[in-house]
Inverse folding.
């Protein structure tokens, strides 16, 4: 009972966050259970593809050639529907497009576009209502919902590109939704401009090598256990990955970048249990990792290992309810606030080192005389300004100011005002740990930046040239000599 | 016929009133400005400030670019935050002292009386000096930040180029405001040393005292966020900082609740608010300086 | 050409110029004569618009306060010592001030040749001797052939040779229809340059005389500067007072004004009182201000 209240509250708060000033209650609907067992295709007229399907025997392969097909499709028997030459199925801006009602269907190689925009009816490009569907190598464009698996276990969603409609985030649908669909493989898909990719009550799902950009939640788990999330890139979303009420989640080798919505978490963990977060890059988010009530039980500590947490406004944000997390071999690089704890909470129930392994802290001020790679002094996080910001968030307004540095300086030299350390790492690493996910990141193109630099330099130099060049008494001597001669003649 | 147009070598005959009118305001301002700029870029303070600015900026850029390592993105965060901090420290000091030194030291050396005995108005001299020094400050800012951008680009940093150009532009606006304020001190002070001393004191106030005071106020009186935001608009440094951040990341969320409030409350007009504050800081001190200067006695 | 009407200038409590009225015709060469502090420089600064004042001053019909720029177009000004950017080259300086006066110059050679600075174009001002600096100032003052030349103690900072050379320059320039006004307390300048002498004392114009009449008066009174041991000075003053003189003490001796034909009197008196005179100088009136020196400053 308690849990359901929590879900409702969470759903509502998420909705409010996202809707922001637009004050729309619509997104809350996404968290209500979809209406099951009702075909939304209704009595749509049968088109060419439909006729081909109707005439195809069970287990056969139907090949569809190039062209634009304006029709609704229902697949009610196990078959493989293959598009050759990129055929387009166009929903003409209303309703759903494809519905799969039989197990063992494969759809491959189509461009499916232009669903309706009704959030109430959850207009979708592909709805799967049966097990063992394979949906791969499709391009879904301008769709409200992308792929909706309802009680479709053992399905595969692979190498699709799914692009949402150009609507307010509150009026968009989910690029991918799993509802009670266990053991699904979601691999190599690319989601953009949608709402969420969301897993409801789905066990044993593998989410691997996908990317989500400019969505609301890059990936969202609700009550989904034993999920493996690996090698994904979730960037520029409102929130990268958000786990709620899920157990046994492994988060490995992903990249969570620039997720800066109102909450702006790279990874958010709410009452999630038995989880491992390792080898991820979590950078430039508003909050790198947000931990609320996780791990939920004491069965296993929340493990954070070998992650690079860099350039976030806040590296790790702990709510007072977060206990029993263990952080080792992570790189904390230049987060404005490396680790914060909100309210009056403290971090004593979480560990920032274990055995003889700690983390790398870019703000570590000690040294390593015996050259064993471990700092000779305990790392104590205790900058005065961070401490003040934790107590009074309004003070963030003074970030990046010399006054902030003055306060930090005072905090360092005057033990009397030095705050209690938030946490300690007794064996801090001297150098960052190398992480594969970082190596895979391509070097950003800096040509434009170089151009800006050269431009600025050029402007500066030309001002100098103006100063040097004008007002000097150069040149006219010869000319005046001639004048003198004229005068003489 | 004389070799010189405007006839200056005529030694014979009666001397009459010159038939030509004195040069216009803009021409005189530009003449004085070019002179001032030329003098400024040769001056020790300019070289020192420019070097200090560039070297510190390069240090920040290099460290953050190398620190970014393979991540390939530092976003606006680290680099720009460091550069903003640097600009906040160096640019106001440079502009304030440059402005404070301009009129007062000329007066002390008797140069001002000689200059003003020529057919120029005081406003022309003041504005000319202002424009000239502004040019020197522009050069300093562009060279410093340009060098930073080049190093960042060389190191493969992903800072958005527009953010650096914005930063340069905002820094220049800040410099203009502080330069005018410095000149106001300069025309008010009796001695150059007093003007410079006051400028340094004012710099300390703006850079540290104002912010620390506001922080203390926030903590002690539990200022509401709208009050805090309104108060912070009084400081040109805060305006510069918020505007620079806002230009790059319109959400301003990095600055916490007060800034979020401002964005939500004012939205698109936030740019206008910042622009208005900055303009006030540029126009008002310079205007006051012009009025006071036109009434000062020159000895 | 120059009309000064009821001009008063007050510095705090002291009245530097007290209701001065003076008219100078075109082509006149007028000396302002008086000790330091008599108000000569103040009056000149008022004319140049450097000081505010009561009354009116017109130059060539232009009110210096309302149309200062236009009025100063008619004026070439030579200060006691040119105080300008020391780093500036000679030719550069000429060009700069030419620009401010609205003169397009193709060459500075003619201008510099006239004051004998040809060949020094590329020198910096700080490398010039005092005399050369004053000649440069003169060259600048003559740019654009202004009808009025105003000079303020132009030879005060020159040595004897420099002074004579400079005066001979000026005397060549006078008598060509140019109106000249110069402040001086040196009789050689007045003898060589002035047509009329305006005597100022404590801010007031005391008399206006012809140069010849002034020269006569100048010679009729002298001051004896008697160098007497410090211990005996008090007694010496008492003795001289009793003898009907009005001696004053200065740092190294006693000053006794006497008529030119009775210089022996004080010697006889002191001799009689057995006060030893170590040494003495005879000062003409124009020297006195110098010896008093400490009394008042050039305002």
């Amino acid at each position: 009972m308690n849990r359901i209240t929590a879900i409702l509250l969470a759903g509502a708060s998420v909705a409010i966050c996202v809707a922001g000033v637009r004050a729309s209650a619509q997104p809350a609907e996404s968290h209500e259970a979809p209406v099951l067992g009702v075909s939304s295709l209704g009595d749509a007229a049968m088109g060419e593809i439909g006729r081909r399907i109707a005439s195809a025997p069970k287990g056969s392969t139907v090949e569809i050639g190039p062209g634009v097909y304006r029709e609704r499709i229902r697949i009610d028997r196990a078959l493989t529907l293959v598009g050759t030459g990129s055929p387009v199925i166009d929903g003409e801006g209303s309703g759903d497009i494809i519905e799969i009602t039989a197990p063992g269907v494969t759809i491959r190689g189509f461009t499916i576009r232009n669903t309706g925009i009704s959030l109430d009816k959850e207009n979708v490009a592909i709805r799967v209502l049966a097990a063992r569907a394979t949906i791969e190598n499709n391009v879904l464009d301008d769709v409200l919902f992308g792929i909706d698996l309802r009680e479709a276990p053992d399905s595969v969603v692979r190498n699709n590109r799914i692009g949402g409609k150009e609507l307010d985030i509150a009026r968009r649908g989910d690029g991918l939704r799993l509802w009670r669909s266990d053991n699904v493989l979601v691999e190599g898909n690319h989601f953009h401009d949608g709402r969420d990719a969301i897993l409801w009550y789905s066990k044993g799902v593998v989410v691997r090598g996908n990317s989500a950009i400019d969505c609301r939640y890059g990936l969202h788990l609700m009550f989904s256990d034993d999920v493996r999330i690996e090698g994904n890139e979730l960037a520029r979303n409102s929130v990268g990955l958000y786990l709620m009420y899920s157990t046994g989640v492994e988060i490995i080798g992903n990249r969570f970048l620039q997720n800066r919505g109102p909450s702006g978490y790279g990874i958010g963990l709410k009452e999630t249990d038995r989880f491992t977060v390792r080898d991820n890059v979590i950078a430039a988010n508003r909050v790198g990792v947000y931990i609320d009530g996780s791990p939920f039980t004491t069965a296993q500590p929340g493990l954070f290992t070998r992650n690079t947490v860099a350039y976030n406004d806040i590296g790790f944000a702990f709510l007072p309810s977060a206990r029993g997390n263990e952080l080792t071999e992570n790189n904390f690089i230049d987060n404005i606030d490396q680790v914060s704890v909100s309210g009056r909470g403290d971090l004593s129930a979480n560990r920032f080192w274990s055995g003889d392994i700690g983390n790398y802290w870019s703000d570590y001020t000690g040294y390593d005389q015996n050259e064993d790679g471990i700092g000779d002094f305990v790392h104590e996080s205790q900058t005065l300004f961070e401490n003040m910001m934790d107590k009074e968030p309004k003070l963030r307004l003074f970030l990046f100011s010399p006054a902030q540095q003055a306060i930090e300086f005072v905090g360092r030299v005057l033990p009397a005002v030095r705050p209690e350390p938030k946490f300690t790492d007794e064996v801090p690493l001297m150098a960052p740990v190398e992480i594969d996910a970082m190596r895979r990141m391509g070097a950003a193109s800096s040509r434009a930046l170089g151009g800006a630099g050269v431009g600025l330099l050029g402007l500066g130099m030309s001002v100098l040239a103006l100063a040097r060049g004008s007002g000097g008494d150069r040149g006219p001597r010869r000319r005046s000599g001639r004048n003198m001669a004229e005068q003489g003649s | 016929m004389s070799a010189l147009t405007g006839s200056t070598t005529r030694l014979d005959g009666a001397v009459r009133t010159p038939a030509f009118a004195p040069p216009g305001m803009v021409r005189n301002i530009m003449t004085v400005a070019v002179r001032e700029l030329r003098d400024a870029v040769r001056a020790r303070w300019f070289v020192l400030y420019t070097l200090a600015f560039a070297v510190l900026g390069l240090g920040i850029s290099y460290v953050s670019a190398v620190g970014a390592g393979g991540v390939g993105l530092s976003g606006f965060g680290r680099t720009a935050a460091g550069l903003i901090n640097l600009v906040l420290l160096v640019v106001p000091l440079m502009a304030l002292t440059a402005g404070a030194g301009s009129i007062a030291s000329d007066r002390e050396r008797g140069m001002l009386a000689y200059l003003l005995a020529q057919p120029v108005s005081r406003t022309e001299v003041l504005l000319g000096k202002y424009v000239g020094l502004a040019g020197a400050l522009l050069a300093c800012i562009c060279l410093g930040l340009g060098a930073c951008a080049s190093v960042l680009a060389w190191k493969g940093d992903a800072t958005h180029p527009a953010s650096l150009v914005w930063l340069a532009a905002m820094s220049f606006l800040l410099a203009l405001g502080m330069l005018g304020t410095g000149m106001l001190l300069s025309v008010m002070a009796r001695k150059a040393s007093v003007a410079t001393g006051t400028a340094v004191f004012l710099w300390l106030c703006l850079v540290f005292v104002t912010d620390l005071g506001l922080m203390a106020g926030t903590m002690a009186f539990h200022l509401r966020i709208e009050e805090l935001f309104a108060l912070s608009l009084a400081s040109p440094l805060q305006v510069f900082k918020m505007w620079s951040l806002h230009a790059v990341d319109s959400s301003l969320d990095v600055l916490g609740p007060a800034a979020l409030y401002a964005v939500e409350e004012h939205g698109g007009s936030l740019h206008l608010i910042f622009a208005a504050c900055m303009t006030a800081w540029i126009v008002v001190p310079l205007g006051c300086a012009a009025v006071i200067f036109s009434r000062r006695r020159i000895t | 050409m120059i009309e000064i009407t009821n001009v008063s200038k007050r510095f705090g409590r002291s009245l530097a110029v007290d209701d001065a009225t003076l008219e100078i015709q075109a082509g006149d060469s007028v000396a302002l004569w008086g000790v330091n502090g008599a108000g000569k420089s103040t009056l000149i600064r008022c004319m140049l618009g450097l000081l505010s004042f009561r009354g009116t001053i017109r130059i060539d019909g232009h009110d210096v306060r309302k149309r200062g720029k236009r009025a100063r177009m008619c004026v070439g000004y030579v200060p006691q010592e040119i105080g300008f950017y020391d780093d500036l080259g000679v030719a550069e300086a000429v060009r700069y001030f030419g620009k401010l006066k609205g003169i397009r110059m193709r060459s500075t050679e003619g201008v510099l040749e006239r004051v004998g600075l040809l060949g020094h174009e590329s020198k910096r001002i700080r490398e010039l001797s005092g005399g050369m600096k004053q000649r440069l100032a003169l060259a600048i003052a003559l740019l654009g052939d202004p009808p009025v030349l105003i000079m303020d103690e132009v030879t005060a900072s020159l040595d004897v040779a420099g002074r004579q050379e400079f005066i001979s320059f000026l005397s060549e320039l006078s008598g060509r229809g140019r109106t000249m006004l110069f402040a001086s307390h040196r009789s050689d300048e007045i003898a060589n340059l002035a047509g009329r002498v305006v005597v100022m004392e404590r801010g007031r114009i005391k008399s206006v005389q012809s140069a010849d009449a002034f020269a006569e008066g100048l010679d009729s009174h002298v001051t004896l500067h008697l160098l007497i041991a410090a211990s005996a000075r008090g007694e010496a003053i008492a003795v001289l007072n009793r003898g009907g003189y009005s001696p004053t003490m200065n740092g190294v001796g006693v000053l006794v004004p006497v008529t030119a034909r009775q210089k022996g009197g004080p010697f006889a008196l002191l001799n009689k009182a057995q006060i030893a005179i170590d040494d003495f100088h005879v000062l003409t009136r124009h020297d006195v201000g110098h010896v008093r020196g400490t009394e008042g400053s050039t305002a």
About this structure: Residues 1-16 of chain B have pLDDT under 50 and may be disordered. Chain B touches chain C at residues 2-18, 20-23, 27-28, 31-32, 35, 39, 42, 109-111, 113-121, 295, 297-299 (CB under 8 Å). The radius of gyration of chain B is 23 Å. Residues 8-295 of chain B form one domain.
